Amino acid sequence: DQQVKQNSPSLSVQEGRISILNCDYTNSMFDYFLWYKKYPAEGPTFLISISSIKDKNEDGRFTVFLNKSAKHLSLHIVPSQPGDSAVYFCAAIAGANSKLTFGKGITLSVRP
Amino acid sequence: DSGVTQTPKHLITATGQRVTLRCSPRSGDLSVYWYQQSLDQGLQFLIQYYNGEERAKGNILERFSAQQFPDLHSELNLSSLELGDSALYFCASSVSEDASYEQYFGPGTRLTVT
User: Fold this and answer.
1) Does residue A106 register a pLDDT over 90?
2) What is the pLDDT of residues A40-96, one digit of tens each?
3) Residue A91: its chain B contacts at CB < 8 A?
4) Taking the mean position of all CA atoms in its chain, how far away is CA B20?
5) Which end of chain A is more exposed for a tag (fewer CB within 10 A), N or C?
6) Nearest-angstrom CA–CA distance, A91 and A10
7) What ranges make up the beta strands (E) of chain A?
8) CB-based contact, A106 to chain B, within 8 Å
9) Are B112 and B44 in contact (CB under 8 A)?
10) Closest-CA residue in chain A for B46?
11) Which residues of B5-26 are buried (b: 16+ CB within 10 A; e: fewer)?
């Protein structure tokens, strides 16, 4: 039973355009969401997070939107850069003493 | 460089064998997490230790065990290995026992069971 779903395995966008990476979840107890980015041969690195009490969090070129009623979140990257090409994992947690549940990841390719 | 080190980088072994993966967390971090990433799966949480004690358990098989030592490094022991155990194993560390805090991941150990 996959509680965090990233249904699109890959996304390709032109440099300078917006990248929108989507994530859906099924567990209504999730109250905190994170995005991690992973380059080949490296471990994932934290990118941005959002609490369920908010619907938007922004950090530079990265913005995460949360729609609790739809159990959906998205990561927007504007403008996209070739260095953003990586695998992006969506993760969620239900409470402070819980574990992180990750999606399968989306491979983003930004074309120069 | 996340500051988390994992050894070895690669490991090839036969079915039925036992291996030990090692992780050194970032300086000052008390939490260590272990994750498994198989071919078509996301990161699956295995187990968390905080300051030497087991804090949370995920989908960890009984054939797998882990521990965190007084110097805070951690080892993941995998025994009676099966072909399906072939995966990338990541260790992550964090300053907090709360898993929502930023976790710093090591580069992983790629295990191949033949």
Assistant:
1) yes
2) 989 999 999 999 999 999 999 999 999 999 999 999 999 999 999 999 999 999 987
3) 43
4) 10
5) N
6) 17
7) 4-5, 10-14, 19-25, 32-38, 45-51, 56-59, 62-67, 72-77, 86-93, 101-102, 106-111
8) no
9) no
10) A99
11) ebeeeebebeeeeebebebbbb
**Could you read off the pLDDT of B43-76 as tens digits, one per residue?**
999 999 999 999 999 989 999 999 999 999 999 9
B42 has a pLDDT exceeding 90: no
Residue A5 CA to residue A24 CA, distance in Å, equals 5
Q: Please report which confidence band the pLDDT of residue A97 belongs to, taking 50, 70 and 90 as the band edges.
A: confident
Residue of A nearest to B96 (CA): A96
